[in-house]
Amino acid sequence: MSVRLPAPFYRDTSVHDEDGAVKPAAQMSSNEYVRIRAEGSPKPGRLWIRPVRNCNHGVTICEECAESWEFDHAVDYHWTLGGRALLQRLLNVDNTDSEVA
Description:
Strand order of the largest sheet: 2-1-3
Order of helices and strands: EEHEH
Shape: globular
């Protein structure tokens, strides 16, 4: 009896691989990604910004997992339009949480 593996979450394209990792030579709109740098590394990388329901929380970034990326990466939210929009959504979520408490 063979075990069927689930289909890849994303299609492998010229922009990202089947896991959602942005390819180094990919041409992307600044609305689609946020720039990151691993701690101790001067070379920046890019994370594809996804809706929470479509994020795999390990290769891509969303409102739900953004804080976990900040533990060992410098997330440069202000570097791109998408990063600024993501940061604004994060701040709105934080403000909403504090108003309820």
